[in-house]
Design goal:
Blueprint lengths: L1 H4 L12 H7 L8 H10 L9 H13 L2
Amino acid sequence: LLEQYANQNPDDALVTTMGMEMEINTFFRLQSPSVIAKLNEQFPKLGDSPSPREVFLKLRELRNNW
């Protein structure tokens, strides 16, 4: 998806649906094993079964440092 829209005209931006956001937006995938596994690379103490709240807070922590 990123490659498809990387060079798009900002005046003709992609408009997503909630269904698409549920698939691609990390903040909507707080219980996703792939999201948790990737977060564990940065935060090893997070563990394999963190709560959605813990995942959200770690995502925010990363986002705050972009």
